[in-house]
Write the structure tokens for this entry.
Amino acid sequence: MKDPLPQTIYLKDYQVSPFLVDTTDLVFDLGDEQTRVTTKLAVRRNPASTDQVASLELNSKGSVELQWVEVDGQRLDNSAFSLTHNLLILPNLPASCVISTEVSIQPQLNTSMMGLYRSRTMYCTQCEAEGFRRITYFPDRPDIMSVFTVKIIADKVSYPVLLSNGNAIERADLDDGRHTVTWHDPFKKPSHLFALVAGTLSAVEDSFTTMSGRDIPLQIFVEEKDLDKCAHAMLSLKNSMRWDEEVYGREYDLDIFMIVAVDDFNMGAMENKGLNIFNTSAVLANPKTTTDAAFLRVEGIVAHEYFHNWSGNRVNVRDWFQLSLKEGFTVFRDSQFSSDMNSPTVKRIEDVSFLRTHQFAEDGGPMSHQVQPDSYMEINNFYTVTVYEKGSEIVRMYHSLLGAETYRKGSDLYFDRHDGEAVTIEEFVSAMEDASGRDLTQFRRWYKQSGTPVLKVRSAYDATAKTFSLNVEQSCPATPGQSEKLPFLIPVKLGLVGADGADMVLDDAGQTEVVFEMTEASQQLVIENIDERPVPSLLRGLSAPVKLDYPYSAEQLAHLMANDSDGFNRWDASQALSLSVLNQLMHDSLHERPMILDGQLVEAYKALLSDTSLDPAMVALMLQLPTEALLHENTDIIHVTAIHDARSFLRTALAGCLASQLEAIYHHYNAKQAYAPNVQQMGGRSLKNTALGYLMLVDRGVELAWAQFQSADNMTDQAAALTALVNCPEASDYAAKALSQFEEQFRDEALVMNLWLQVQATNAQPNGLERVQTLMDHSAFSMSNPNKIRSLIGGFANANHINFHNPDGSGYQFLTEQILALNTVNPQVAARLVTPLTKWKKFPEPNRELMKQALQNIANKPNLVKDLQEIVSKSL
Ligand SMILES: [Zn+2]
């Protein structure tokens, strides 16, 4: 299991493959002890390669055991090929030939959840990025695209359902109680889109008629007990298929589309051609067991994976440095879809909150990297918020710079030009350039310069000339490997808000909003005919992934919060106002000065709660103070206790001032109505539960929360009440009762029990580590299931800051032990858990030294997998 010394792989070293694989025929004989895989590859020399005498190199990884090799039906003896740690090398091949191999593998022992493995009673696969080489010898790189035919043989009683990509072309029963199904996928695809599933599964079925009138059967395969949790995913799938036809002109291509739900899965879901494999947490949904947030997540992920059928599958990536080509683009597509299905403003606020908390933090830390990196050691470490979320922000900027219509022309051109090919980010930019006639040379810097740019804006109003001028400067901090940055092309969408709260007219055309395209390090924008000093509303909708530096006064922010016509910027003003108050409180707490509530913020919130015209979802978002994680990102030195205390003080003080209004809101939205997972109801529940969270702080919520917990007919309300009780020091009796009642009620629902673990893992009251350690022994927890690890260990390390960062170092020691326990068992999950420790440089002593020591302890472990080696070595 030991990885060799990790090698760095460079984009500049890319070379076309010397061989192509036209067809791939696989036979899987699934056995409890051994699984045999025979592989037949029709290979030929690649005319595009300069090396026409190269040997053929086939990758492998893990415990793939070679039985034999044949070339054109002739068995090779051992001297005719060489076999290294992870390569089978075949020299002296003719211009074209058929390579056959047989290997044995043991999926039942594969804990990495890459390649073919077992999840409970079923077999399933995960091949992106480099899992296919754990199944058989293959040139496992994305630019090798091949037509796959897959025959699966297995016991008919244990594995009645046998699935792979494409269409089923043959089924047969064998004499010995086994059966076989053969699948053929007519579309050329890379090996990372291969999938296989075998097990006892039940299916929910439906169908979709495409724009050209083809009837496509749709199937979602789950364990029988989960059949009642598939309706939402099916509806989301059909909505996605329709939306992609209407908005991008993309029609589905195969004769069937299948989704399979799997319990043990490293990621959310995987877009394998025609056979998407989903983590159960990303597909199952039912009001009784699923929160509103999880309903939205299911809708978004179903759409994301479906949209990959074009952005990723039909047009594929040439190499893994192009990952954002498919991911950034597809994240943007799924965010557009979710906006159209729900509230665009709420969706944008959620996306930006996530971007600021996680991507800005990554870009300011040791793992900061470009959207298109130049190098990596372990590609699994580059499935990052930068590649996904910042990549999506880049595509969003094409959309705003070019306009919806031209952007669509660009995407059509991209799909038409490159259908069936494996291409680069450059091809996407070229298609946008050719469709728009614009030179995007400078815009390309977004892919190659890391770090979060800062936009410093200063303004001046000239009452005599009636001009309002904005002086704008951009800069980007140094990041690992990049000390100097060139100016970005930054679209700055802005408006000016007058004293009456209305948008001012900005030009002769009567526009009240403009997009200013910043291209220089420093520029000035002068707006004429402005009759009074306005409040600028800058970067509306966060028109670029940058940080804004503008010296707003509290009065100006309150004005924007109450009046801005851009809903996103109204919310952003509430964040900026509470952030400035929190910064002052943190400062006071740190210097042991009394903390005092800011009157302006209270007045702004009172006005907010009195405005009945507002969408309740928006009010809820504006009431929610910046999270501790965001405060950590926003500060140079993370004083964990001061941040926690300042935020707790402000929440409690606000609750005291707003109690009557919050109570009225709570009762208004707590009115009984039949549950539906629609936008209106979700907004009401969100506001009600936000109000409940505040009321818990002033002795007015405990009885309400307990009543809500007992009477809730949906998981959103029940989980919110549980969380409120668990986090309330005065409600410990109720909390204990609620936890045990919840456990009793949902003992057999794995996903709900994950939530139960997470609520306790994130409980900020003292002794958090002891509670987590006790839960490690609970039957609801397992170190072999990634969802449970994320809920309990991840919840504690990422969201229970005050306990995790205990200055005695116990939290760090605990996390280190868990990471090392997972080292060779599941490298991918282990590597994800390290993130909180990598931020050590931002902490004061003693935490700084303790976190560094924890990383050092991980680095010192013999047999450290390269996933961990890369992150730890770059962080230290
Ligand atoms: Zn994706």
